[in-house]
Amino acid sequence: MPKYLDLFAGAGGLSEGFIRAGYEPIAHVEMDAAACYTLRTRTAYHWLKKGNNLAPYTKYLAGDIPRKDFYALVPKKILDSVLNYEISEESLPAIFKDIDSLLGGEKLDLIVGGPPCQAYSIAGRSRSECKMVGDKRNYLYRLYAEFLKKYQPKYFVFENVLGLLSARDEDGSLHFDNMRALFKKCGYATDFRTLNASDYGVLQNRKRIILIGFHGEKADFYPQIPVVKDAHKVGELFCDLPSIKAGEGVITPVKTTHYTGKYLFSAGIKEYDEESVTFHQARPNTAQDLEIYRIVVDTWNKSKTRVSYTDLPERLRTHNNTKSFLDRFKVVAGNLPYAQTVVAHISRDGHYFIHPDIKQNRSITPREAARIQTFPDNYFFESVTGRPSRTLAYKQIGNAVPVCLSYHIAHALLTRFTGGDKNAEESNT
């Protein structure tokens, strides 16, 4: 069972895929406090599941016990494996000390993670007056390299957006070239692929750069990651969820309806039929929002085209920006093989994803977004205060790596450690 460290862990989408493939997390490092609570709760879930004792977790999701009492049921070392730090030169000594304590002298086999993508993303650069040149997030890979030098794992997996390939430093050099040169100085050969999540069991068009490093001089170390062939449609993600309108639904568990399909099970989203889900709560909307939704969904149903912001009647246009981000309204069409990319700013822009059922006439719920990202239905998204927040859930989900994409990367890489894991292969698509 290879041991790994997750840097810039977010809410744990990347990590969940590696756990599913059979890896053991030693620590998660993340700066966002709410995401750290999500990671602690998920870490607690996995510990309780190993002990065949998920009853406390079920009670916690139902709101029957507070988070403090729930955490008290889990060993402190398990919860302390989630390290709430902003990774910086100043924080490195403290982070290394905590990781060393958790390792207890054992060897770290793998490091995974990707720094925040805003500085590399084409969208982020287009909205920045300085095109993100000089932004400190451009250089977080240098800190990633410090972990490689310190722990010298056999492999590392570095994930980021396609914009990484074209992002330039102040001197005009490509950050990606500089990054790979630094990793080489640390003793790692590197190779990369552009992977689309839709090829790996995710009903979403989401392309990412997956850079893998090998400690030493070796050719052809990048694992073969077989494409998953399926004919499922996006509507499969929503078919068993209770029908709700804007402003309706609850964050606490609600039972799903009988499900006769296969995808939700094969993707690891559902564990059993009629399993309850949390965060199936729709945003409240104004009368203007609802009128826009009706126009957008009607247009899609009639012509299979998406409404540009400038296509709306002037009385419905409240934003001054009519030059960019005109595709702010996207119908999550149930009859397509994949949805559009779940974006990080979904927490700020409630109109970005619209449910295809005009009778419901609303944006998608956090649970629906989580399903598009292939998070398990029993995955719970936390806040700092302990009071669940729909906005924070959207943010964590939008920033995450799809779990199924992560699983297929992890499973393929596992052959480099162990020669394959037959049980994991048989239990996942």
From TrEMBL:
GO MF term set: DNA (cytosine-5-)-methyltransferase activity; DNA binding
GO BP terms, alphabetized: DNA restriction-modification system; methylation; negative regulation of gene expression via chromosomal CpG island methylation
Active site: 117
Keywords from the UniProt entry: Methyltransferase, Restriction system, S-adenosyl-L-methionine, Transferase
Pfam family, one: DNA_methylase
Reaction catalysis annotation: a 2'-deoxycytidine in DNA + S-adenosyl-L-methionine = a 5-methyl-2'-deoxycytidine in DNA + S-adenosyl-L-homocysteine + H(+)
Record-linked SUPFAM superfamilies: S-adenosyl-L-methionine-dependent methyltransferases (SSF53335)
Origin: domain of life: Bacteria
Entry keyword Methyltransferase: yes
EC number(s) from the headed UniProt entry: 2.1.1.37
The keyword S-adenosyl-L-methionine is assigned to this record: yes
Membrane-traversing stretches: none
Protein family (similarity comment): Belongs to the class I-like SAM-binding methyltransferase superfamily. C5-methyltransferase family.
NCBIfam families reported for this sequence: dcm (TIGR00675)
Protein name, per record: Cytosine-specific methyltransferase
Phylogenetic classification of the source organism: Bacteria, Bacillati, Bacillota, Clostridia, Eubacteriales
